[in-house]
Structures are given as structure tokens and as C-alpha cells.
Amino acid sequence: MVFDKIPRIHFRRPAEILVLSAAVVLFTPLSWFRMGPAFSMGPAFSMGSALADSGQGWLDLSLLVGPEYPCTWPTWPRFQINHYERIGPISPYNSDILVIDGNTGTQLDVPPHSVALPETRLPNAGPFGSAFTDRIPAWQFVGEACVIDCRDLVETGPDGRSELIKKERILAWESRHRMLGPGDIPLFHSGFSDKHYKPFPEGRRFAADPVEGQAPAWPDPDPECMEFLASRKVMALGTDSPSMGPLPDMAEPTHFAGLKHGMIWTESATGLGALPPTGAFYCMMGPKHAGGAYSEGRAFAIAGDPLARRLVDSARKKNVIDLSVTLSDELPVWWPGRGAGNGRQPYITVRFGSNPITKTAFETHMLDSHAGTHLVPPAYALPPEGFDGKIYSQEVQEWLGEYEKRFGARGASDMTAEKVPISQTCGPARVIDIRHRLNTSGKKSWPASPAITVEDIRESEKQRGALRPGDIAIFHSGWSEKYFALFPAGKACLEDPLNGKSEGWPSPTPEAIFYLAERGVRCVATDGPTLGGVEPKRALMTYWALGSRGMAGVEYLTNVSSLPQGAYFLFAAVKIKGCHGGPGRAIALY
Q1: C-alpha–C-alpha distance, residues 317 and 334, integer Å
Q2: Element (H, E) at 406
Q3: What's the DSSP call for residue 587?
Q4: What confidence score (pLDDT) does residue 56 get?
Q5: Residue 235, Cα to own-chain centre: how many angstroms?
Q6: pLDDT averaged over every residue in the chain
Q7: Contact 255, 114 (CB under 8 A)
Q8: Distance between CA 505 and CA 507 in Å, rounded?
Q9: Is 442 helix (H, G, I), strand (E, B) or coil?
Q10: What is the number of other CB atoms lying within 10 angstroms of the CB of residue 541?
Q11: SS3 content of the chain, % helix, strand, coil (to 5)
Q12: 39, 43, 49, 54 alpha-carbon torsion, rounded to 10°
């Protein structure tokens, strides 16, 4: 994606001019699935090799995203993070504004990256030109990892040129292992990202120097290899190079050769050498951007049976459900706050430049780190060690005193998104039906959220069995399925409940969180917009309870009513350094 013209920025609404101007100031320089508890308080990120996660056989295959790393394409607007909301007198929470586009870190390409919309009648138009990130079927994100060793092709050619991965290499791999087919995900392992993904200035060697012709480029498949894989009915690939495209002039032909068949792939994976040649379960997924031709994402694998085998089997049968809300400027995906001036960064799509291949604008996004389906790490509401509680507002100081009198010390944490192990946010799905809590608060009490209590959880256990360590507790209210809609109808999802015009979504009490922690649950999810609900005091106490037990939250699921009993839940947030939330994707296999 090299372009040599200064991009023009196109705004959807006049208000975006003000928001972007502000940004410039802010940012300029069940049993067969179970593998035991999946919880760790230790750091969970690595630069050049796969991370062995806290659960047996879990491997994080994603690059760390941060401004000091070469995480964006060298001719692209750089990734930025602004810790604009910090725990203190104004807010009891930490949150961040992200400026991030789909070509950031470990990333997902989908067909519209190179395939134009059918109605354009361009030479590269095709039926998959509308297969955007919000329309790709969830089964395509998962499959069996088939690792193809390409390390002999690294740095053997001239500067600015890639060595080509030919179909003969695939045939040789097949002769040693087995024939590739549907449900397989070939992963091209060269070790390129392991070696060259480093902070700047060394990080220029990862992408900028090869693009400039100052260093040898990464190995990648040629178009003939792509066509051969398509003939094997392979629908997903991966590479540990910055792009699934050989330099200097075969990137687009290779992209189109695969994407025109409806393929998707991972770019900039890392640590692929830790995987066995076959047998591991592989997943790559990213935030569900409406109309997205690519997406920042998270790649991981599970090596070891019986879990890997069972998940691969589900993937081959396409037994996969998408549980994520769509991210769009026209949908209620960000926190509007109560009244005026209390909202967080809106989700905004910024269009710039022009893709000469598809005749569409490139896109980047500005969003709060808690937009859409997202992660809630402990450091969202817990301050770091040594924090002086007197810095809180007087009102929050009083709430803290009440909390600690009832529940004990609030605690402290520096566990941001990149430190939450993927294994902690994945596990057997335990749906707790709390739909009976809807419409149970009196109008005079609004703004109010009905409380999800310990009794609700115990009643669910009576019906479905006791919760076990490693289970993902998912509160099912049906809220997002009912109220998540385009504006103005979408105001009923967040804005109206926050302002007392309607009842809020059900949310757990601190006691309910402590009960789940005692059961060994380390991740709690909801199909409501937040776990905290609309009442500030109880919401904060709920988040303190989560953080004090080292628990992670996943908020704003949808389609939970489609989850069959015994499903396995997968959630992964983008691996952003120091992020106090984390946009991501949730799916389930059954």
C-alpha cells in the first residue's frame, strides 16, 4: 500500500472536522473443551516469539502495537494512543482514544482489500467485493494451522526484493504431511517478524527499509501459488511478514489472486515456529468494522489435544457463531454519558486518499478503547500501586470508603490489555439467563439498572450445573439483540437509559462478581453495553470487584441467544500496549 501523494481526508459529518482537529492537538509527536484454570497475573506479551499463555498449549501469535513500534505500514498514518481519561478527580476510570486502521500490527485482510464491488464493473470487481470485515462468516477465522517453513528464503535476495514462495513448496509440504483442504490454514513461517519487529529506529528494518529498497524484503507467495491453494479449497492463510505481497511489484497480483476466491489472511503474525507442522487450532479475528476492507486483529493458537482437536473439528464443520456488534458511526457503539459533555470519544471513520485498485477511499478509525465489543482489563478501574485515594473526587472517596468497609481493600493493578492472557478470555461458555430481570425497576428510580444477584447465578447453576474454573460466565439479557440499531432508534440502547428515559440494562452486583470469582471464573461477559450498568456508584463498585480479583470483562456481546449449551467461547482484543480497554472480536464454536 505505497502511495506518494499527500492523502486528502473526507469527512462524513461536519462535526468530524472539530474532532479530528482536536485529535491533531492531542496526538501530534464443556468437559472435552476444558483444560483447567486459565488465569495469570503475569505479563503476557513478547516481541519476537510466540507467548506460551497461562493455559496449557495457548500461543499468542500477535505483535505488540505501540507508537514506538513499526506497527503500521510505512506510508500509512501511524497508530496513536492518547490516555485521555485517567483515574483522578474527574474520573474514577482509565480510558484511551485510539487512532488505528486495519493495517496495524497483526492484521486481517479480507477480499475488498483488492476486489472491487460487483456493481463497479471494474476489471477486478467480483462477488467477494462486498465481503467486508463485518460480513465475513465467523467460520473463516478458524481452522487447523499448517505451518510451512520458509526460513531458507529470508534475506537471500537483493535489497527491495522478495524471494517467492512457489506452489512446489506447498507440494513438498504435502508430500511430508498430507494434502491441504477446506478448514486448513497454511501459515508461511519465515521468522521475519521474530527477527525484525523492534522499536524504532531498529524497527525500520521491518518494513520501511525493504519498501525503500534499502534491505532485502520478506518472502511471500506468488500468484500461481495462491491459485494452487485456492484449488485446494483453502479459504484462509497467514504469514509472519508485514504483507502477503512480494516486493517490489507482485504484491497486488498476489493479493488479488487469493482474495478474488474469497480468501482472508493474517499478515504480521509472529512466533509461528512454536507451532507443530499440523494439528494446532488457529484463530485470527479482529474488530467488526462496518465496510472494513481490512482490520487490526489478534492471532493465537492452541496446540495440544483434546481441545485443539475438538475446536478444529468444529471449525471444519463451520460450527461457529459471531457474537460481536458491528462498529459504525451510525450505531450506538460508544459511551454517550449522561446529560451533555460527559461522553467519551465517539467512533469515527476517517476516509483519506484513494485506493487505485478498488476506487474507494482508505479508512482509519478514531475510537474510545471501550467501543463496541471490547475487553475490560483490571487497570480500567484500579489505579497503580501507590495511588493516593484523596486524588479522587469527594464523592468517589465516599464510595471507596463504603466499598472497602463492605468488601475489603479495592486493590491496585497495572494489568492493561496486552497483559491479559488470551486464555483468560476464552473457555467453556456458561450462559446465565437474566432476562427475567428486565422491566423490574420502577420508573421513579430511573436511571437504574436491574441488579443481577448471587441468587440469579445460583438458580442458573441449579438448572445447568455448577460453574467450574475456567468457565466464561455470560449474562444473557437479550439487550443488544433488542436495542442495538441505527440511530435514531439506537438511542434506546445507551442514551435513553443513561438519561432516565427508560430502564437500564441488567448489571451484576459486586457480590455477584465475588461469587463468580469464588467459583474460579476469571472472565465475565455480558450482552449489555457494560457490566457496570447506568448507576455510577454501583457500576464503579462492580468494576472494583472485578479488578480486585484479577478478573477480565468482555462487554457488548450480541447474538447470545444463538449459543448452544456446551459451546466454547473465544474473545481476543487487539494487543495494544498500555491500553485500558481493547476493541476485539468474540465468537463461539460448538
Answers
A1: 35
A2: helix 394-407
A3: E
A4: 57
A5: 21
A6: 91
A7: yes
A8: 6
A9: coil
A10: 24
A11: 30, 25, 50
A12: -10
Q: How far apart are CA 134 and CA 261, in angstroms?
A: 18
pLDDT digit string (tens) for 168-197?
A: 999 999 999 999 999 999 999 999 999 999
Boundaries of every domain in the chain: 107-318
Residue 29 has pLDDT above 80, yes or no: no
**What does 1-16 look like in DSSP terms, one character per residue?**
----SPPPEE-SSTHH
* pLDDT value of residue 34: 35
Q: Would you say the pTM of this structure is higher than 0.70?
A: yes
d(CA 541, CA 548): 10
User: Residue 71 — φ and ψ, nearest 5°?
Assistant: -85, -10
Residues 138 and 281: their CA atoms lie apart, in Å, by 15
Those residues whose C-beta lies under 8 Å from the C-beta of residue 36, and which sit 6 or more positions away, are 55, 56, 469, 470
Q: Which of 166, 181, 183 is CA-nearest to residue 231?
A: 181
Per-residue 3-state assignment (H helix, E strand, C coil) for 157-180:
CCECCCCEECHHHHHHHHHHCCCC
Q: What is the largest CA-CA distance in the chain?
A: 74
pLDDT, residue 341, reads 92
Q: Mind listing the pLDDT tens digit for each residue in 308-327?
A: 999 999 999 999 999 999 99
Would you tell me how many other CB atoms lie within 10 Å of the CB of residue 497? Answer: 25
Give the cell for residue 219. 518472502
Q: Tell me: pLDDT of 14 over 80.
A: no
Are the C-beta atoms of 222 and 164 separated by less than 8 Å? yes
Q: What is the pLDDT of residues 270-311, one digit of tens each?
A: 999 999 999 999 999 999 999 999 999 999 999 999 999 999
Architecture of domain 107-318: 3-Layer(bba) Sandwich (3.50)
